Amino acid sequence: MLKAMVLRELTTLLRRRRMMTLQCGLVILFAVLVALRWPTDARVALSGSRSQQVFQLFAYGLLATLLLLLPVFPATSIIREKIQGTLALLLNTPLGPARIFFGKLAAVLAFAGIILVMSLPAASACYAMGGLSLYNDIGKVYQLLVLVAVQYAVLGLLVSSYASSIDSAVRITYGVVLCLCILTLGPHYFFQGTKGALADLGEVLRSLSPFAVMLSLTGAGDLGSQGLLSHKDLLGQFTIASLIISVVASIWTMSRLNHTIFDKARAAGTISDDQPGAVQYFRRLFFLVDPQRRSKGISGLVNPVMMKEFRCRRFGRLHWLLRLVAFCAVLSLALTYATTAGTFNWGVETIGGIMVVMQVALVVLVTPSMSAGLLSSERESRGWQLLQATPMSITRIVWGKLLSVLLPLMLILCATLPGYLIMVYIEPGMSQQVTRVVVCLAATAVFAMLLSAAVGSLFSQTAPATAGAYGILLSICALPLLVWLGRDAPFGHKTVETALTVNPIAAALSVIRMPGFQNYSLIPANWWILGIGSVLSLAVLLMQTYRISRPK
């Protein structure tokens, strides 16, 4: 019966036409990653440096591919069954929670195995050049990739068991991936070389990031090591942590697979307007924006589609927006403290680079989740026909939806500005750099919003729309950095600069003079690319909107 469950899940996953396109694209991608650093002459260095360079780029690309493609499938597995009503049927069969869970997990891991198998010819080409150990180099990299696949597949299934919608499951899963891969490196970067509980905590959190492990396996050293030597067994630490997380998340998910998963207790709640005046006054002082207060009518001067999006989206409600802005402000103040404390050791540019990376990571995480489903969610829920029945024009509908994403993004960016103001106060000569960084962040936010909305308009379902938007946006931000990792060996300065021109993260880091990016001139070329990309994305969004609005 477990075999039937696996075949059912795997057949559903692989029979889609886009999966064949995806597999062909992966084969081409792996071939290109190897060809980029393949020797152009008949000589091969006896030290194996060229083969190590080829394998290093290939390993980074394979890890990035796995992190971009894999999470969406387990994230939508359980919640899709729940929405379609087939999960209740599965729970009434003799399969049991364990077989249902392992059947879904095996199907996702089989897909991950297909990706890894398709990469073996490229890995064999790297090994054929010499200079690589079959176990210490190739074997350990694939060990890391298998652990990553298992861990994030299990976490995706756990998130899917709690999510209330498909798009929220995808959004939360990618957020978990971002936190485990990137944000876990922050404490180690700040407290390395010191002693105490914070330094130990940073060391433990660093072992959760596959990027740090991959860099140590490929000979690039520890990420953000600041010149400090480290001989930690990151792969061993990651293996233990990954297995513990996978086992705990598996047991947790299986305990959720019963009929209580459909019972979601909700508090009846009370409307503040029905409470005595003293209670209303106290709640207004305590909450600033009372979440239980009855919403007022929509003014004729306000776009009704924008208000509809705000009130239907959890983070669109004013009290949630204020919480998000407060979180960003607190984060900015924390980084401001790091700026003042770390200026003498690392320089303002390094701390400014950390702020840029965190801000862009926040924009990349939040924007596709809000923009990708602007049209696909309406088409999936049959709400687009209701919007067409209103007297509003298509342009006003699209503008209202875009405003519902643009305003929260601007609030988030404005909440993170105090750190830059302190930097200008410390270094008055950096005022022009900070101004350019703010322009880069604003351009990145607009580009991410329009690109995600355009990609999402091409789909009729929210889950593939959100996954496609995340995949394209993260590729634009991540793939040029693979070329940057190969700077001076063998990519020249001009090649790296050309590749980084399309990357908004690299443009902001070059402006702030982050070490490693200070020698590249990416502005204003990056602004032109983001501007042209935003205009083209807006054109695609409008054309797709007019296409689906035609009478059928």
Distance between the termini: 44 Å
Q: How confident is the prediction overall: mean pLDDT?
A: 77
Structural domains: how many:
2
Number of strands: 0
Largest sheet features? none
Q: Which percent range describes the beta-strand content?
A: under 5%
Q: What is the 3D form?
A: globular
Task: Give the helices and strands as they follow along the chain.
Answer: HHHHHHHHHHHHHHHHHHHHHHHHHH
Q: Count of helical segments?
A: 26
- The radius of gyration is 25 Å
Could you outline the blueprint of secondary structure elements for this entry?
Blueprint: H1 2-14, H2 17-35, H3 49-69, H4 72-84, H5 86-91, H6 96-118, H7 120-128, H8 134-162, H9 166-181, H10 186-191, H11 197-206, H12 210-217, H13 234-256, H14 277-287, H15 304-312, H16 318-346, H17 348-371, H18 373-380, H19 384-388, H20 394-415, H21 418-426, H22 431-456, H23 462-485, H24 493-500, H25 504-511, H26 525-548
Helix pairs in contact: 1-6, 2-3, 3-7, 3-8, 3-23, 4-8, 4-9, 6-8, 6-13, 8-9, 8-12, 8-13, 9-17, 9-23, 15-20, 16-17, 16-20, 16-21, 17-20, 17-22, 17-23, 17-25, 18-23, 20-22, 22-23, 22-25, 22-26, 23-24
